Amino acid sequence: MSRAMLLVMLVVLLALAAPAAFAASDITVTVTLAQVGVDVSPTSWALGTMAPGASQETTSRHFTATNSGNVAEDLTIAVGASTPSGWDPAAASGVDEYRMGVTTDAIPDQALTPSYTLASSVAAAGTVGFDLKFTAPAAGSTYNAGGETITVSLSASAS
């Protein structure tokens, strides 16, 4: 037999003796995107007519913030200027300055000037009860006879 023929036979024999081809293997990748969100209830608080410097507050954790996301969240509560007159939040009421405070089980009446961390690491679907305390400006250089609107905002960020 020629060397070429022996070489061909050796290659054929090695091919026949080789193990079967490896089976394919798949990897399944599952991903869930982190989502943050917060819902609050109730969504309004009507104070009516108040004297300058007077205060009103809710009780029994009147408001509830709920983590509507799918990860633990830090919740922040904030206030801004009133409309239409533009009263500003402050640590204490003054001329054209009002005070908005927040109380939770962990926070005694804390002024929102203009924001404060309401709670940290609130689990998904977890809740935080809180109360608000409003102190009207001690005096006003401007006001609207129809009333002022103050927006209290809650925001969430992943812990």
Characterise this structure.
The chain is mostly beta strands and 159 residues long. It has a single domain, classed as Jelly Rolls (Sandwich). It has one helix and ten strands, in the order αββββββββββ. The chain has one helix at residues 3-17, and strands spanning 38-41, 55-57, 63-67, 73-79, 88-89, 97-103, 110-111, 115-122, 127-135, 152-158. The strands form two sheets. Strands 1, 2, 3, 5, 6, 7 and 9 form a seven-stranded mixed sheet that branches. The chain has a three-stranded antiparallel sheet with strand order 8-4-10, with no helix packed on it. The longest helix has 15 residues, at 3-17. The chain starts with a helix and ends with a strand.
Please give a quick description of this structure.
The longest helix is centred in the first third of the chain and has 15 residues, at 3-17. This protein has one domain (38-158): Jelly Rolls (Sandwich), CATH 2.60.120.
List keywords for this structure.
159 residues, mainly beta, seven-stranded mixed sheet, rod-shaped
Strand and helix map with partners:
Blueprint: H1 3-17, E1 38-41, E2 55-57, E3 63-67, E4 73-79, E5 88-89, E6 97-103, E7 110-111, E8 115-122, E9 127-135, E10 152-158
Parallel strand pairs: 5-6
Antiparallel strand pairs: 1-3, 2-9, 3-9, 4-8, 4-10, 6-7, 6-9
Order of helices and strands: HEEEEEEEEEE
Number of helices: 1
Flag low-confidence runs: none
Tell me what the CATH architecture is. Answer: Sandwich
Helix content: under 10%
Strand content bin:
25-35%
Task: Assign the CATH topology.
Answer: Jelly Rolls
Count of domain modules:
1
User: What is the tally of beta strands?
Assistant: 10
Radius of gyration: 33 Å
> Mean pLDDT, as a whole number?
89
**What's the N-to-C terminus distance?**
78 Å
Shape: rod-shaped
Oligomeric state: single chain
Largest sheet: 7 strands, mixed
CATH class: Mainly Beta
Find the structural class using helix and strand composition. mainly beta
